C-alpha cells in the first residue's frame, strides 16, 4: 500500500511467471483479471492463462474437456482462460518492457506469442488465384475441421486498469500483431488468431488524473502501458515467426498456404446522414481490385 492509500501494483503483483510443459504454456499471475477472445472468452479472474499446442490432425470438438485434460497432464492445477494453436511451444517467444523507463515504480508489460501462418486471412487479395483457392477450400472444409497455424498472443500488464482500459488493450495488442504480420508476411492475421490480456485487478479510479491512484484509465498507443504492449507484441510475434519459419518458407499468398481465406466481398458504403432517404443496395461477391 502506498503512502496515499493507493495500491502499488509492483508490490502486489510480482513479475508473471512463464512455464512450458508438454506443449502447454502457462502465464502465471496470481489473482489476475483476464479478458480473452478465445474459447469460453470474456472477462475472468484466475491465477493463470494458457496457450495449448494441439497435435497435427487434431479433431477434438469437446474443447472444455480437452483443455482440462491437457492442463492436468501437464501438472498445471490453476484454472484459467486458454487458447489453442497448431504451433509447437518450442516456437513460443516472450518479451518484457517497463512501461516508463524513467519512473522508479514503472509498471512492466509481458507478452508471449506463438505464430504460424499456414492459414492466412488476406484482406486485400491481389490475385485471382487467392480468391479461387480460398473459395475452393472453404467449400471443401467441414465446419468442425481444425486449421493449423494461428497467431496467439498473451499479454500481462502489472498495473491495475479500468474496465475500458483492459478492453482497449485487446485492440492495441491485435493492432500490433497485425502490423507486425503485415510487415513480415503480407497478411494481417490468420483465420484463428486470438488474444488474452490481463492485469492485477480491474477497478474504477478515485482521482481525476490517470494513474494517480494506481489505476490506469487508458491503454491506448500513446500511453505508457499501450506503448510497451505494442513493442512487446511486435517483438514476441516476430521472434516466434523467425523460429517457426527458420527452415521453411513463409507462404507468399493464400494459394501458397495449406489453408486460408481471402475477403472478396465488397460492402455498400454510404453517408449516414443520407441513409434515411435512400434504399440500401445488395452486397456483391467479387474479387477486391480497388481501394480508395
Automatic annotation (TrEMBL):
<dbReference type="InterPro" id="IPR002808">
    <property type="entry name" value="AdoCbi_amidolase"/>
</dbReference>
<feature type="compositionally biased region" description="Basic and acidic residues">
    <location>
        <begin position="7"/>
        <end position="22"/>
    </location>
</feature>
<dbReference type="Pfam" id="PF01955">
    <property type="entry name" value="CbiZ"/>
</dbReference>
<feature type="region of interest" description="Disordered">
    <location>
        <begin position="270"/>
        <end position="292"/>
    </location>
</feature>
<feature type="region of interest" description="Disordered">
    <location>
        <begin position="1"/>
        <end position="22"/>
    </location>
</feature>
<protein>
    <submittedName>
        <fullName>Adenosylcobinamide amidohydrolase CbiZ</fullName>
    </submittedName>
</protein>
<feature type="compositionally biased region" description="Low complexity">
    <location>
        <begin position="270"/>
        <end position="282"/>
    </location>
</feature>
<feature type="region of interest" description="Disordered">
    <location>
        <begin position="120"/>
        <end position="147"/>
    </location>
</feature>
<dbReference type="InterPro" id="IPR052209">
    <property type="entry name" value="CbiZ"/>
</dbReference>
